[in-house]
Write a structure and sequence with these properties.
Blueprint lengths: L1 H9 L1 H12 L11 H5 L5 H14 L4 H17 L3 H18 L2 H18 L2 H17 L3 H18 L2 H17 L3 H18 L2 H17 L3 H18 L2 H17 L3 H18 L2 H17 L3 H19 L1 H38 L4 H54 L3 H7 L2 E7 L7 E8 L2 E9 L3 H21 L5 H18 L9 E9 L5 E7 L3 E5 L2 E5 L6 E2 L11 E4 L5 E5 L7 E2 L4 E2 L1 H12 L4 H16 L8 E7 L1
Helix pairs in contact: 1-10, 1-14, 2-8, 4-5, 4-6, 5-6, 6-7, 6-8, 7-8, 8-9, 9-10, 10-11, 10-12, 11-12, 12-13, 12-14, 13-14, 14-15, 15-16, 16-17, 18-19, 19-21, 21-22
Amino acid sequence: MRLSVAISILLLLVSFAGQAQKRDRDFDIPSDRSLENLRRLPDDSTKVKIINYVGWDTAYYSLTLGLDYGYEALAVAKRINFRRGIMMAYNTIGATYGDMGKFDEALEAHMNGLRVAEEMNDSRRIGTSCMNISLVYNSMHDTTNSVKYLLRAVESYEKINYTIGLAVAYLNLGAQYYELNRLTEASATLRKSLAISNELNLPKTAAHAYGGIALILSDSGRAAEAHEYMNKAFAVMDTLNDPYEEAKVKSSAAAIFISEKNYPKAIELYHYALNVLRSIGVREEMVTIYKELSEVYEMAGKPDSALSSWRNYITLQDSLVNEDVLEHQRNLEAMYESEKKEQEIELLTRKGNVRQYFLLAIIACSVVVLFLVIMLYKRNQFRKQTNIETERRNSEIETINRNITDSINYASRIQEAVIPSINQLKNEFSDAFVLSRPKDIVSGDFWWCTKQNGAFFLAVADSTGHGVPGGFMSMLGSVFLFETINEKALTSPAMILDQLRTKIISALSKSGTNSNVKDGMDMVMCRFHSGNRKMDFACAMNPVWIVRNNSVIEFRPDKYPVGEYHGEMKNFNEQSVDLEVGDMVYLFSDGYADQFGGPAGKKMKYRALRDILLEVASLSCKEQREVLNKKFDVWKGNLEQVDDVIITGIRI
């Protein structure tokens, strides 16, 4: 729940920067805002302010055009050495790059603006630049630097007692402290923001401060006070008539009702937030809410609604990754429908002409008869041509769809070629099996192994998403594992996961992947010593289970993935265990346990999976795989498979 809270509070930073510029406005905006006409104005400070303001305003509907105005304002300000204008232009450029998701460029622009503000010794604008730099670092998930620049903004505003800036700076600082689980500091800074906001009548800032304090009180077990503050947040939001801001506050408030097991109220708040976000098209935030809503429905004993929300979560998450492919297909279909409608209109027009000429036949029957013969012939030819064209269009669409399916099938064959042979496991251990059931043709769940310097390495991973996006992630993981172990010769499982996480984050940041989706993978990395009687391993999100003497020994994982993570980036922990002859070691993803099914249509969950593994552990690995596969089908029944599934078992 902390992520949604931090987002809802930190969104105020951008609007604060924009309002700061509007307060600097001491000029009239020309009615003709074209860049060429603005360039004809004489070079002075007013021209800089006008172009910069128009750039900020234009960026609301065209980021590229807004950036052009920002750079034009910067060029004029530099020509006349207008340092405050230079700083304002850098602020506009940085904010626009930030909205584009180009964080390196945004950071560079805001740093340049900060240097100019420092040269001017302007504490207020130093604080504004530091606030904007903090926002960029927050978008890059660098909490340490985000807090660093927020503290500097507070210091600059306190020097000049700039209370409006302090209200927003304290609010954002409280959100960051909450994200770091530093609840005492978070509460203190949010209360400072609240006091200033109430004194200066800043309702939006006050509402978010009330909401943040409410969540801290709820986390501390002070339910009555938490409700008191959240009701105050609701009351303030009611006065603003701003559904989007109200949706953010109510979405955050759902956490309080979940902790109190008041599931109907939490569900009501989530649905309110979804309706608002859907109406304005903010789909990234909807992904998180659908996932949380599925969990709440399950806790409330409503499996059908839980499954429906989970499907919405999976569908929306995949649509964000596959949007380009879907958009291309929609364009093809739209083009086909448009051409078909044009043909229908043309046919209707032709029919209308026939009626008109039929009336003229009353006057000249012989002419009409001749004309009708000609028209019937032409219409017949036209219909033939139309049918040929329609068939051609249908054939093109079928070919495109077939090519896409063939490409995915070919990708599946490539993925199968990259995945090791089961014989590599059977040659190394007494017995082994791998149960792999992709949700679609290609899978985001995969396993990988290699032998290096007398040690045997085995990894089982669950990539973000499934289908084509998941398949790409699995291929990326296999390549990086080969580079890390076979080429760089790393032997520590924990260090291998650390290195793999660095490679994945670097690769996806270069590709411009949306960080809100949190791309990466959950993985267990094992190293078996010579003789396979000792195993060192590191776990990212997924555990290791060992069945010995009809009981399960569980080794818990680190609660952060191999990839993007909004919390503190810690090194992975390494664990070791001495193995005994006859032990069954199981590595798996969450797909089997998360499958909906059974008489009530609920998730299977890990307790049921544990019971199944205890039941089959004494069988041969081939029989274990058959039983697991059959029980999965029986549990799933007629419901669709919700995720990729992989279970790997080895006998010592």
